[in-house]
Fold this sequence. Notes:
- The chain is of the alpha+beta class.
- It has one domain.
- The chain contains 5 helices and 6 strands.
- The chain has helices at 44-52, 59-68, 78-92, 107-110, 118-127, and strands at residues 14-17, 21-23, 29-32, 38-41, 54-58, 96-99.
- The protein has a 3-stranded antiparallel beta sheet with strand order 5-1-6. The protein has a 3-stranded antiparallel beta sheet with strand order 2-3-4, with helices on one face.
- A hairpin with a 5-residue loop joins strand 2 (21-23) and strand 3.
- The radius of gyration is 15 Å and the shape is globular.
Amino acid sequence: MPNVDSKSGLEGRYLARCTLWNWHDNSTIDIIDLENNVIFHLDEWQTMVFFEADGNITAEALVSSLQAKYHGRVPQDFNDRVFISTEELAYKFKVIELWSHKDDLPYYFELPLAEQDQEQSLRLMAADGRI
């Protein structure tokens, strides 16, 4: 497993999306609000991390999983780019949370908003205290 700097707070933590989102195109994601307005657009590195942040993957496992998709042609700065993107998403943008335990995401964060029953999502978010 790749090493994670313990000072980053990522070590051994499970990554979990904690905001609404939609696909912008085939390779990037938009972070959106309840009215489906784009708050900001993730770049391709941030998108890879955000999409994989399903509450069941640690930062270390994320790097290994993403590396496997490159079939041995991993860019030299790959680990740094993934960890920087993870830190930005968690600490700067606050669109992923770092959990101490593995768990599934709630329905309203699992799927893109465009694929959800939006009334059900709003009810569940209200019941969970998210709105």
